Amino acid sequence: MNIESFRDYCLSFSGITEEFPFDENTLVFKVMGKMFALCDVDEFESINLKCDPEKAVELREEYPGLVEPGYHMNKKHWNTVSMQGNLPDDLIKEWIKDSYDLVVAKLPRSDRELINSSG
């Protein structure tokens, strides 16, 4: 997966914004103002994705060196996924969608209804 397909996939969900809240290199995707994915736009060596804590540990064990605790993030809830490995795009997309769904599930009902009506 390259940065363009990553960006396009993230933007395909409802209620998404993209911004650079930290610096000019870190692209952050948010749903209703809450982060669900981020990456370095210059190097695109990895992406950070929110993950269920139990699944996060499982993925780290199943894909050592490719899935690590979230860099500069809460390591219980975030994974850093290497884009330098041979992970299939479909698997990465599944994890992006899981991240999005986790964040949406924690939103207030009014925000979830807004997302559902626009998608």
UniProtKB/TrEMBL annotation:
This is MmcQ-like protein. InterPro entries: YjbR (IPR007351), YjbR-like_sf (IPR038056), YjbR/MT2646/Rv2570-like (IPR058532). It comes from the Bacteria. Pfam families: YjbR (PF04237). It comes from Rhodohalobacter barkolensis.
